[in-house]
């Protein structure tokens, strides 16, 4: 099984789409109510769906960046604001936090080998 995509709710499609393009994502679908993006590396994609009602999305979307500190500096030069600059976390990841224009929480991070093989890894199935 492979994760296909995540869809985030947004309040303003043009503003949200421009934000994700500024992060470096390639927009591959563009409609007034739906946009889809390819991530700059790998085969992942995600989408945005216009939601004109009130919502609070408690999900967090993670984008893996091996060059985290350089990418954050580059995005700051483009005017992207961060709620947390890159920081080493106790779960052995380095991450920065920002929010898209609709308030969706985003983490740019680098975990290296610890992403799938942390020291506390377990393997359970069935």
Automatic annotation (TrEMBL):
Pfam (any one): Glyoxalase
Residue span, VOC domain: 2-111
The organism's place on the tree of life at top rank: Bacteria
Family matches, as InterPro entries: Glyas_Bleomycin-R_OHBP_Dase, Glyas_Fos-R_dOase_dom, VOC_core
Gene3D superfamilies: 2,3-Dihydroxybiphenyl 1,2-Dioxygenase, domain 1
PROSITE patterns the UniProt entry points to: VOC
Entry protein name: VOC family protein
Organism of this sequence: Microbulbifer harenosus
């Amino acid at each position: 099984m492979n994760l296909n995509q995540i869809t985030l709710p947004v309040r303003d499609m043009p503003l949200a789409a421009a934000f994700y393009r500024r992060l470096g994502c390639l927009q591959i679908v563009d409609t007034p109510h739906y946009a889809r993006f390819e991530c700059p590396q790998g085969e992942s994609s995600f989408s945005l769906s216009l939601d004109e009602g009130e919502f609070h999305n408690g999900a967090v979307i993670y984008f893996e960046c091996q060059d985290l500190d350089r990418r954050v500096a580059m995005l700051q030069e483009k005017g992207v604001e961060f709620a947390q600059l890159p920081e080493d976390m106790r779960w052995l990841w380095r991450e920065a936090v920002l929010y898209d224009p609709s308030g969706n929480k985003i983490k740019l991070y680098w975990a290296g080998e610890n992403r799938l093989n942390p020291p506390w890894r377990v393997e359970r199935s069935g």
